[in-house]
Amino acid sequence: MAFEHKLVAVLNKEIEMGVALNALGHMSIGLGSDIGKNLLRLDIYKDAEGNNYPNISQIPFIILRAKSNEIRRTVVNCRENGIEHTVFFNTMTGGTYLEQLERTKNTSEASLIYYGCVLFGPWDTVTEITRKFSLWK
Question: What is the pLDDT of residues 26-40, one digit of tens each?
Answer without folding.
Answer: 999 999 999 999 999
